[in-house]
Design a protein that fits this description.
Helix content: 10-25%
CATH superfamily: Glutaredoxin
Number of strands: 4
Strand order of the largest sheet: 2-1-3-4
Radius of gyration: 14 Å
CATH topology: Glutaredoxin
Shape: globular
Strand content: 15-25%
Number of domains: 1
Structural class: alpha+beta
CATH class: Alpha Beta
Order of helices and strands: EHEEEH
Largest sheet: 4 strands, mixed
Bound molecules: FE2/S2 (inorganic) cluster
Length: 118
Amino acid sequence: MLIPNRILFVCHAQRPPVVGESCGSKGAAEFLQKLREILQAKMLWGPVMATASGCLGTCDQGPWAVVYPDNVWYRGFTPEDAQEIVEEHLEHGRVVERLAFTPPDSGETSQGGNGFEV
Ligand code: FES
C-alpha cells in the first residue's frame, strides 16, 4: 500500500444557492481534473494525490483546496493555476503565495496554522 506524501483536497460542494457561494459552481471539478492530468503526466500520482472533498467550511472567495500535511489553503484558483500549484508546491514545496489564503492581520500564509478562529 502506497501512502501519499501530500494530498490536495479540492472542495466540490454544491450548496443550495440560498446559503451562498459554493466551490462546486466555481470550476472546482475542472481544476481537479486538470490537476490529476498534470500529476499523472509528471509521474507524481502516488506520492501525491488530489481528491474531491466536501465543504471545507470557508466557502466565500472559492473554490477552496487544502494541501496536507502542509496545511496550506488555496482559494480563488482556476484550472489554469493547476500547473503552477503542481510545479511550485507539490514538486518543490514552495507555496504559491498569490493563491494562498492569508489570515487577516497576519501577513503570512496559512502554512503552519489554519488561520481560522475557532
Ligand atoms: S463550498 Fe467549498 S468550502 Fe464551502
